[in-house]
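for the recovery benchmark. tokens below, seq after
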């Protein structure tokens, strides 16, 4: 009994000391050190200077192509381009290209380094995680819980993999996390600057990925409900100002989407899907197939399985004690849940092959966890119960992050696949290709290459790709020659395909699994 009392006393003293770390600079320093530790522990430092690799290689090279074309062709923000000329002049638009443009600007200062774009994305993602920590601290007023809520995101392999990557989804998530922090901070300090920052972040997230508008829409709805039904005891303060700010932000996003739709239509761009792919367009068999991939393949990458169990417990706890719910938190979760269900239904098809689509659910899970912990604090002040719960969360975080580290290692060591093969072969032969001193404005046909911008990105040249070997025909190559192609790059050792190149041009490089033919020389020869 004495030993038990001594243990409890020791634990209380240490936890009391832990929770007294309320000096902002100490908290910020601890969190920064944690982020640095996680970056190294997860092995992200080992891929710092690597280019695109692993799954979704094609989308990675698409993103990098936007930045490269800003750098190569001038910094016209509203004139985004790709390397692939299947669209008129390679022009294509999708997400708001703010991170691509910033990358290009940095290229002009420090040189063209592939780590720059993913470092920008990492900073935004980690700042978003920091904002979750600050948000949790505001609501829960418990340093341990605040750190824990923030670290939960690092039990997700999907978050960790894309946090230091080229895809736009992670900056969209980082911005939306930041928006949630500043909207709550605005409820405390009532400063217009804080409100502006909040909806600046929400607007940026929606501009990059329109589906993230679920979050500011939820805030607008809560503000309108507060304005209409809770005037005496408002759910949120300055509801009218918040609603107006939100509408302005959404209007900006709508205008951008109108612009990109018209832009793509004007230049016959088909590079990106800009429409919903709803569940009702699928057969029962295909619906089952997508669900099987989600539950049996992607599920353990979305979050560590016990992290999911924690969310389920918190959700059940919320339902059981629904009568004791804070109206604001309850409405917040209900609206976000409804929005996320609608998102899942509208883009159901995409979840089969795109694990990063799940990132849009993260705000719901994080806010669910925060509101659940808040309710637990409200229901019981039993210190021992909170110690037990904190210990459980800590174990889940440690095991989850370690499991994610293992999964990341497998992703990073995934090797060359059919999508990355041609691009990485060109990268391996970069020195020999550069020694050819080919005109920067020359146009290439790259084949076979499944990525619309993969090989062309590593060549840093505009042109066209032929996806499969059986597409490499005299007719197809002549078609692109007539459109202005100057060179043919074949990433194959197949003698039959090489003979096609020989028949149409002069070989100027025979490298490691690639051959380059000068098509221009063949035309000039035929003139004599």
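predicted aa per position
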């Amino acid at each position: 009994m004495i030993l038990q009392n001594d243990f409890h006393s020791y634990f209380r003293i240490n936890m009391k000391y832990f929770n007294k770390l309320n000096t902002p600079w100490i908290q910020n320093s601890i969190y920064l050190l944690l982020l640095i530790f996680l970056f190294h522990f997860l092995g992200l430092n080992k891929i710092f200077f690597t280019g695109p690799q692993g799954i979704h290689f094609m989308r990675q090279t698409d993103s990098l192509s936007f930045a490269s074309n800003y750098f190569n062709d001038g910094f016209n923000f509203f004139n985004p381009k790709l390397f692939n000329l299947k669209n008129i002049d390679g022009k294509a638009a999708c997400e708001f290209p703010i991170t691509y443009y910033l990358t290009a600007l940095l290229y002009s200062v420090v040189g063209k380094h592939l780590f720059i774009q993913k470092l920008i994305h990492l900073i935004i993602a980690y700042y978003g995680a920091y904002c979750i920590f600050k948000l949790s601290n505001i609501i829960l007023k418990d340093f341990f819980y605040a750190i824990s809520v923030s670290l939960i995101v690092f039990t997700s392999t999907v978050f960790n993999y894309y946090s230091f990557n080229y895809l736009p989804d992670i900056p969209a998530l980082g911005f939306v996390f930041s928006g949630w922090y500043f909207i709550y901070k605005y409820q405390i300090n009532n400063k217009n600057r804080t409100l502006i920052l909040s909806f600046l972040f929400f607007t940026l997230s929606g501009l990059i990925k329109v589906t993230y508008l679920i979050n500011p829409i939820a805030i607008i709805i809560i503000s309108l409900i507060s304005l209409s039904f809770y005037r005496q005891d408002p759910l949120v303060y300055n509801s009218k100002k918040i609603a107006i700010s939100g509408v302005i932000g959404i209007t900006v996003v709508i205008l951008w989407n109108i612009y990109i739709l018209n832009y793509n239509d004007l230049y016959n761009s088909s590079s990106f899907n800009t429409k919903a792919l709803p569940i009702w367009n699928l057969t029962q068999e295909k619906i089952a197939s997508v669900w099987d991939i989600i539950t049996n393949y992607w599920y353990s990458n979305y979050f560590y399985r016990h992290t999911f169990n924690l969310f389920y417990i918190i959700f059940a706890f919320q339902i059981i004690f629904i009568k004791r719910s804070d109206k604001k938190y309850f409405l917040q979760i209900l609206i976000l849940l409804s929005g996320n269900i609608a998102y899942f239904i509208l883009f159901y098809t995409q979840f089969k092959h795109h694990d990063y689509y799940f990132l849009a659910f993260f705000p719901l899970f994080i806010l669910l966890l925060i509101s659940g912990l808040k309710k637990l604090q409200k229901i019981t002040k039993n210190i021992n119960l909170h110690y037990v719960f904190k210990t459980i969360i800590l174990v889940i975080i440690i095991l989850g992050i370690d499991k994610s580290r293992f999964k990341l290692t497998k992703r990073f060591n995934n090797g060359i696949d059919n999508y990355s093969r041609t691009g990485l072969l060109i990268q391996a032969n970069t020195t020999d290709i550069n020694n050819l001193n080919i005109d920067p404005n020359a146009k290439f046909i790259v084949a076979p290459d499944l990525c619309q911008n993969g090989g062309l990105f590593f060549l840093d040249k505009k042109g066209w790709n032929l996806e499969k070997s059986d597409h490499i025909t005299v007719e197809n190559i002549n078609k692109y020659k007539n459109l202005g192609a100057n060179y043919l790059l074949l990433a194959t050792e197949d003698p039959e395909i090489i003979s096609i190149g020989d028949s149409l041009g002069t070989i100027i490089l025979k490298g490691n699994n690639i051959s380059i033919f000068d098509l221009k020389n063949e035309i000039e020869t035929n003139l004599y």
